[in-house]
Amino acid sequence: MVKEERRLDSLKRAHNPTSGDAARRESVRIEDYIEIIHELINEYEQASPGDVADHLHVSKPTVSKMLQRLDLAGLVEYERYGREVTLTEGGLSLATMLRHRHSVISDFLRHLRIDDEIIHADTEGIEHHLHPDTVERLSDLADFISSNPDWWDKFKLS
């Protein structure tokens, strides 16, 4: 039998400065930028640095610095002082994965009959912290629920 980790030990490890928290926070910021750029392109057929700044509630110089880093990482194409940002193949692949993860979580929460406003807020809070295996399990469960409504109706939700 696997010994369950003490909650206190788990909390301590999660807040250890050498545990990768800084890298995870950076990863979350990168994901937020890629998501916003992708959604702007889908909705308006283009993404400008100003629109990215507006949607992320950060300054334009902050966006410019991050876009330069994303360009160096091969996720976007961006020229300093440019008017448009585009996703590279790698950026589009990441955006597609992020959109899938977002959809899985929000669909699962919708099965729990949670209000849409809460679903959007909770999904934004949860999505960056779930392991890909967990997301796929939630996807499988949501598919099962959709395919077996009688089973789900037995689970009493208020």
Oligomer: single chain
Total of DSSP H or I helical runs spanning 4+ residues: 8
Tell me the series of helices and strands, N- to C-terminal: HHHHEEHHHH
How much strand?
under 5%
List the helices and strands and how they pair.
Layout: H1 7-14, H2 21-44, H3 49-56, H4 60-72, E1 76-77, E2 86-87, H5 89-111, H6 116-126, H7 132-147, H8 149-154
Antiparallel strand pairs: 1-2
Helix pairs in contact: 2-3, 2-5, 3-4, 5-6, 5-7
3D architecture notes:
There is one protein chain. This protein is mostly helical and 158 residues long. It folds into two domains: 20-87, Orthogonal Bundle (Arc Repressor Mutant, subunit A), CATH 1.10.10.10; 98-154, Orthogonal Bundle (Diphtheria Toxin Repressor, domain 2). It has helices spanning 7-14, 21-44, 49-56, 60-72, 89-111, 116-126, 132-147, 149-154, and strands at residues 76-77, 86-87. A two-stranded antiparallel ribbon has the order 1-2. A hairpin with an 8-residue loop joins β1 (76-77) and β2. α3 (49-56) packs across α4 (60-72) and α5 (89-111) crosses α7 (132-147). The longest helix has 24 residues, at 21-44. The radius of gyration is 19 Å and the shape is globular. The two termini are 36 Å apart.
